[in-house]
């Protein structure tokens, strides 16, 4: 599945006093017809698309489908297969933020109503980047509730994971053959030096990154992480509920990768981005070992337009290499279709800087990486790979050693 996406984040800032709507500030509401045409002009068939939740979900059981009806009809006419993203870093005002337990059933009800209204849509992302959403909203204090404590992080993480489970169940009741692409940011933390405390922090952060996916996939976290969840407000009966869930076979693990995903824990205990060190292949191998799901490269880009074509090909070579090792990678995505606004500062302030990461700029003129992606698709769209059946994945894929092993070997 060669894909791109429409940047659709809509978090709130200043304790919910106002909202950053990327579809609005990047011009999608005005140019959505042209944007869909651009997708097809590059030969792309799959589109990660997040309908504006805050404009559709007006209250319990109340929906405004007017915008999405037009977009869905145009997608169907153009032959675009949407991968519908139900929640992308924000909630409607009436739900507040990710500390609110009511969001779980509200999103489940919304997903069921959506699937009934658009029965031809078969690909879904229940919740976008649950770990990133919980971390930036409830631990680093950038968005939404803007909390900075562990208990708020755990609350947001378990609410997001529960919502993802309920969304999945609601869609399956309407569309039993639906395919779910659960994408997450491929984080990795490296200690700066052989200091026991720094190594402890890095080790814990490398487990923390898995918490929402562990809950969604009913994968028991490490004992100390489970105890961390209990100590920070997760009821034991809720944990047992997560661990008892049946995970649909038709589930794809989406692994996003950017040059800031790899971080070093410095002597002060803080994490700083260190650029591409191990790369998507090595980090994705960790996620695949843990969850044994078909994989999709669901997001990547470069903030330097001159380097973007080379970055595109580097990511594609990672995909080819890991497929040869036996990991069933079934999709690749350049994110997003157009440039974005203020993503160089994680949308933490309304500066208005253009982040030039798109296949097209905000005038809808093609960038060099757009032409490179079109060429890549033309070269590889007819290539075939024998993939296993759902639930029959290779337990002996020839994956690279863990980065910790590589570090010890280097020493």
Walk me through this protein's architecture.
This protein has 411 residues and is of the alpha/beta class. The protein has a single domain (2-410), classed as Glycosidases (TIM Barrel, Alpha-Beta Barrel). It has 15 helices and 17 strands. The protein has an 8-stranded parallel β-barrel with strand order 1-4-7-8-9-11-14-15. It starts with a strand and ends with a helix.
Biggest beta sheet summary: 8 strands, parallel, barrel
Question: Looking at CATH, which topology would you report?
Answer: TIM Barrel
Q: How many structural domains are formed by the residues?
A: 1
Radius of gyration: 20 Å
> What proportion of the residues is helical, as a percent range?
40-55%
Give a quick summary of the entry.
By secondary structure, the protein is an alpha/beta fold.
What descriptive keywords fit this protein?
411 residues, alpha/beta, TIM Barrel, three-stranded mixed beta sheet, 15 helices, hydrolase, hydrolase activity, hydrolyzing O-glycosyl compounds, GH, Glyco_hydro_1, Glycosyl_Hydrolase_39
